[in-house]
């Protein structure tokens, strides 16, 4: 049996999590998928999946082989494109990921505009409040907010965002505004778990950072819900500036302790390193980069956008 075919089937099964789904994706019968995996296991001398009638799990051997298998398929695709000098219209499928709130506010409208101009491209947008492994999860492009760890991914900076504390004018009129980070312990706190996983908020203290532990009255895993609760006057919450820029400009929320906020953090487009970039990804990068820059600029909080409560 062809080795490349075995590798293609193996990666498809690992991605799909089942022999049947992989067969449907590759248009192969279940017995054909089973034969390909069995041939690969015979060649490797080890099982790549532990499988029962009810479950499928990749083995340690399979996990180690998976990254190399993906790289082989990517290199083959690149070689084929280089051989034929592919310069035609972008086509095929892209998978793009971002955080849930950023995806709703900034990414989704841009994706729809891109699809209107490129009818031969389809896109899956995966919104996650976690860091996805692009290679293992078959993702072509991610939008990452915050400092990037060292990795083999290519990164393209498109802007910055800030962390800000916000509350409604009505809440601050009733409870007063905190003058110091320690004053937050006297307030009703609303914690979005994506930004405060350790129930801790950090501030600038001179040239160093200071942390304040909080005991939230409301803890929620959705940023939009946390912001809505703050807007209704239920307390103070931490948000990224793009999430609340319009709320602040319209006077529905007010920033507090703004002069102690940490520096802005970068926003990057990241994608796996590859000597040849597929036309569909190149077209998307060229399209999304200036539009994300414009969106982040529009949602950027500047001094004077709204008065910070200093009472």
Polypeptide structure, described:
The chain has helices spanning 3-16, 19-26, 30-44, 60-84, 100-117, 169-175, 223-231, 241-249, 279-298, and strands spanning 49-51, 56-58, 92-98, 121-127, 141-145, 154-161, 163-167, 189-192, 200-205, 208-213, 218-220, 236-240, 254-256, 265-271. By secondary structure, it is α/β, with parallel strands linked by helices. It folds into three domains: 3-84, Orthogonal Bundle (Arc Repressor Mutant, subunit A); 92-157 and 265-298, 3-Layer(aba) Sandwich (D-Maltodextrin-Binding Protein, domain 2); 163-260, Periplasmic binding protein-like II (D-Maltodextrin-Binding Protein, domain 2, 3-Layer(aba) Sandwich). It has a five-stranded mixed sheet with strand order 4-3-5-14-6, with helices on one face. β9 (200-205) and β10 (208-213) form a beta hairpin. α1 crosses α4 (60-84). The longest helix has 25 residues, at 60-84. The protein is elongated, with a radius of gyration of 24 Å. Mean pLDDT is 85; it is low at 303-311.
Give me a quick take on this structure.
This protein is α/β, with parallel strands linked by helices and 311 residues long. It folds into three domains: 3-84, Winged helix-like DNA-binding domain superfamily/Winged helix DNA-binding domain (Arc Repressor Mutant, subunit A), CATH 1.10.10.10; 92-157 and 265-298, Periplasmic binding protein-like II (D-Maltodextrin-Binding Protein, domain 2, 3-Layer(aba) Sandwich); 163-260, D-Maltodextrin-Binding Protein, domain 2 (3-Layer(aba) Sandwich), CATH 3.40.190.10. The chain has helices spanning 3-16, 19-26, 30-44, 60-84, 100-117, 169-175, 223-231, 241-249, 279-298; strands at 49-51, 56-58, 92-98, 121-127, 141-145, 154-161, 163-167, 189-192, 200-205, 208-213, 218-220, 236-240, 254-256, 265-271.
């Amino acid at each position: 049996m062809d080795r490349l075919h075995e590798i293609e089937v193996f990666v498809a099964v690992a991605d799909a999590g089942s022999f049947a789904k992989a067969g449907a994706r590759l248009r192969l019968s279940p017995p054909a998928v089973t034969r390909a995996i069995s041939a690969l296991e015979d060649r490797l001398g080890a099982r790549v999946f532990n499988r029962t009638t009810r479950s499928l799990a990749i083995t340690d051997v399979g996990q180690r082989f998976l990254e190399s298998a993906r790289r082989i398929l990517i290199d083959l695709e690149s070689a084929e494109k280089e051989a034929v000098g592919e310069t035609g219209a972008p086509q095929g499928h892209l998978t793009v990921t971002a955080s849930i709130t950023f995806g709703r506010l900034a990414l989704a409208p841009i994706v729809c505009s891109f699809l209107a101009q490129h009818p031969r491209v389809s896109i899956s947008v995966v919104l996650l409040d976690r860091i996805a492994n692009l290679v293992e999860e078959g993702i072509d492009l991610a939008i990452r907010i915050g400092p990037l760890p060292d990795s083999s991914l290519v990164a393209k900076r498109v802007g910055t965002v800030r962390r800000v504390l916000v509350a409604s004018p009505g809440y601050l009129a009733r409870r007063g505004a905190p003058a110091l980070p320690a004053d937050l312990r006297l307030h009703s706190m609303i914690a979005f778990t994506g930004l405060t996983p350790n129930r801790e908020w950090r501030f600038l203290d001179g040239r160093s950072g200071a942390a304040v532990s909080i005991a939230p009255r409301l803890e929620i895993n959705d940023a939009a819900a946390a912001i809505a609760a703050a807007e209704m006057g239920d307390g103070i919450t931490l948000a990224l500036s793009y999430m609340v820029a319009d709320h602040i400009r319209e006077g529905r929320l007010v920033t507090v302790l703004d002069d102690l906020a940490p520096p802005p953090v970068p926003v990057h487009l990241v994608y796996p390193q590859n000597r040849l970039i597929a036309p569909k990804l190149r077209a998307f990068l060229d399209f999304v980069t200036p539009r994300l820059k414009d969106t982040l600029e529009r949602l950027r909080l500047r001094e004077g956008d709204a008065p910070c409560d200093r009472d």
